[in-house]
Specification:
heterodimer, A: about 450 residues, alpha/beta, UDP-N-acetylmuramoyl-L-alanine:D-glutamate ligase, Protein-Tyrosine Phosphatase, Chain A, 2 domains, nine-stranded mixed sheet, six-stranded mixed sheet, 15 helices, globular, B: about 240 residues, Rossmann fold, 6 helices, about 25% helix, binds zinc ion
């Protein structure tokens, strides 16, 4: 009884704080959730959850996947709780759930789509049992916080029970082995654009069989450890897919997914392989929770996908592309560099402002050396500007990766980087930024447009 | 110069493999020999000039111990013969007496080259920086680890720590040194991060090569030394 009273007090205080924050024009953040957890540490054990609760986790793509799930469900007329505008740690999860709860703490919604930061898994799943756990991939992320994929799997698995159904990427052997207690398992994957080479010499996090330690045979590797593999010793292999992308037609703008003996055609939102995985994840989840092909494809047709992480502006004959590259995340930055190298254009300049520093903290630069920078040595990239306090380390790392030293310019001040770009001699300019440098990147873009216009 | 890079297919966290890349860029005549976890090391029958091994997951650390254990006597012989070893991150724990994995509740014997023990706790990650002195050089580096090392390394420490911690939070002596065997919890690219130390390692291995891209490397190093000595900068 006392526990219940404490919960109700925490709920009301948190709801009031949310109201107060809104009245002074502050957006709903994780603050109400943090307050609730302060007053009632097991708040999540008491708060009601929607009829069907879907938790989305994994290294890359969880925000896009959970937002897309929420958008489709709402488009189809369902009521949805999600934390898309809050945070994905414990406080953000609590905030999202309490916002949509009644004054007695019951949930009013049909679906909950909650993005959960991998490292918050123990704190969240200790109290909440998701109906579905969705995971797209487990990759290298911040070495300080996430250590390594083995550790992240351990943390995610720790408190999950057999009651949770899982929806996992079968092309990621680390991800596919998550939640071993769950017997209701659905696998998705992509069967197009398979690389010719069996096993490129890249760094991958699954080389030996996690069951018996024998070297795995590789059918193919797409990037990092995303691909298909099997163990010749004990028979472990990438699980068969239940939902498979069987065709991507860029010209027609369609994506075909096969499952349960049918082939369904959806609108292709973006033909980047990462986004093909994201779309496939979303389609699989929506089918599993009972939506029909007509509902899903209808919503896909109507939805405009907000491209927050990619935008392109053309000024005269110069195009400026803003590309998100999650800082301290070697896999995400490596993919962003490859994207720039593979982009059309012969005269590219890249401004890299992924470097962020708290004034009294010195960030570890080791991750730069775990990040594959070889794509930056592509001859179409004529100029690279590193802007930020770690610019000297970035420069050395780039030289080691094969970038000619004369192509590299550096400045300690992020704001000055844009002035080092030679706008006259480059037709494609890329600005790579991260979460903490969004405002600086936006300013850099405005300044760049001014400079290009002045040159005309 | 022959550089044997041990188990790079798994012991490759935090940029540690870039030490081998950097050495090969310092001395273009050098050759990197990649030895996989399930194969016979080159050093079993030959004498490489430098042997490198880097950070890995706890599961792979246990496999690495299994793979190296049969070569324990050979490793001692090579150390006595002056072969350079550089074991970074949790790779150097392999050469201590034993590792207790607190979270998994298992204890595994190491190769026992140093009278030290290790405790690994997946719920106690430690991140920090180190600046200190080793054989007259100033060494800078980063650490990110689940484990601490216990025992008395005062007779064979690698770094006298100026700021940061040593083998554990109570220690100011980091890592181990036995002839030309250097083991440290400092992770990642310790050689490009410390070009003078890299040249020192090259000398130990009998090479007169200079640190590669030295101007760029020294610029980054000098800036880091200044920053690490700035009292405003937090260390962990
Ligand atoms: Zn096996």
């Amino acid at each position: 009884m006392l526990k219940k009273i404490r919960f109700i007090i925490a709920l009301w205080v948190a709801k009031a704080s949310r109201l107060a924050l809104r009245m002074i024009g502050k957006p709903a953040t994780c603050t109400p959730g943090i307050i609730a957890l302060k007053l009632c540490p097991d708040f999540l054990a008491h708060i009601g959850t929607p009829q069907t609760l879907i938790c989305v986790t994994g290294t890359n793509g969880k925000t896009i996947v959970s937002n897309l799930l929420g958008d489709v469900l709402r488009d189809c007329g369902y009521s949805v709780t999600n934390n898309s505008y809050g945070s994905n740690v414990q406080g953000g999860v609590a905030s999202a759930l309490l916002t949509d709860a009644t004054l007695t703490g019951r949930s009013k919604k049909q679906f909950g789509v909650i993005e959960v930061d991998e490292r918050s898994s123990i704190k969240v799943y200790s109290y909440i049992t998701p109906d579905y756990l969705v995971c797209n991939n487990i990759m290298r992320d911040s070495l300080k916080r996430n250590a390594h994929p083995d550790f992240i799997s351990y943390v995610i698995n720790n408190k999950l029970t057999e009651k949770t159904k899982v929806i996992l990427n079968s092309d990621d052997l680390i991800c596919a082995r998550l939640a071993p207690k769950s017997t209701d398992r659905t696998y998705f994957g992509v069967d197009v654009r398979k690389p010719e080479s069996g096993d490129p010499e890249n760094v991958r996090d699954v080389v030996y069989c996690p069951e018996c330690g024998h070297r795995l045979d590789v059918d193919y590797i797409r990037y990092y450890h995303i691909g298909r593999m099997s163990c010749p010793e004990c028979g472990l292999r990438s699980p068969d897919r239940d939902f498979t992308v069987t065709d991507v037609d860029v010209d027609a703008g369609t994506l075909t997914v096969a499952h349960d003996g049918v082939s369904e055609v959806y609108r292709l939102m973006n033909d980047n392989i990462i986004n093909i995985y994201n779309s496939c994840t979303v389609i699989t989840v929506l089918h599993k929770i009972g939506l029909t092909y007509e509902q899903i494809s209808g919503a896909f047709d109507r939805l405009k996908i907000v491209a927050t992480r990619y935008d392109r502006t053309t000024v005269g004959d110069v195009s400026i592309t803003m590309q998100f590259a999650k800082g301290q995340n070697p896999s995400a930055c490596g993919r962003a560099f490859s994207y720039v190298a593979g982009h059309s254009g012969e005269r590219k300049s890249v401004l890299i402002m992924t470097d962020f520093q708290e004034s009294d903290e010195s960030e570890s630069v080791c991750w730069l050396y775990d990040c594959d920078m070889s794509a930056l040595a592509d001859p179409t990239i004529r100029e690279i500007v590193f802007a930020g306090p770690r610019c000297r380390d970035q420069k050395l790392r780039a030289i080691m990766a094969g970038v000619p030293e004369e192509k590299i310019k550096i400045t300690d001040t992020p704001a000055d980087g844009v002035d080092l770009i030679d706008v006259k001699n480059h037709s494609e300019i890329f600005i790579l930024y991260q979460l903490y440098t969004i405002p600086a990147a936006a300013r850099a873009k405005r300044r760049l447009i001014e400079r290009v216009e002045a040159e005309k | 110069m022959k550089i044997e890079h041990l188990y790079g297919e798994v012991a490759n966290f935090y940029g540690d493999p870039q030490n081998a890349v950097y050495l090969s860029q310092c001395d273009p005549d050098s050759e990197i020999i990649h030895t996989r976890l399930d194969s016979v090391p080159y050093f079993a029958s030959e004498r490489p000039d430098i042997i490198l091994i880097g950070s890995m997951s706890e599961a792979m650390q246990r496999l690495a111990i299994k793979s190296l254990m049969p070569y324990k006597e050979r490793i001692i012989e090579l150390i006595d013969d002056g072969v350079v070893f550089l074991a970074t991150g949790n790779a150097y724990e392999i050469f201590t007496e034993r590792i207790e994995y607190v979270t998994e509740k298992i204890t595994v014997d190491g190769l026992g080259l140093f009278p030290l023990t290790v405790k690994t706790d997946l719920f106690a990650r430690y991140n920090g920086m180190v600046i200190g002195e080793a054989d007259g050089m100033t060494i800078t580096g980063f650490r990110s680890q689940f484990s601490f090392v216990y025992g008395d390394n005062s007779d064979f420490a690698f770094i006298k720590v100026e700021r940061g911690i040593g083998i554990n939070k109570q220690s100011k002596l980091e890592g181990v040194r036995r002839k030309n065997f250097i083991g440290t919890h400092l992770i990642g690219p310790i050689l490009p991060l410390n070009p003078e130390f890299c040249e020192y390692v090259l000398r130990l291995a009998g090479s007169s090569a200079c640190a590669a891209h030295k101007e760029a490397a020294m610029a980054a190093y000098d800036r880091r030394v200044a920053e690490f000595r700035d009292p405003k900068v937090k260390f962990d």
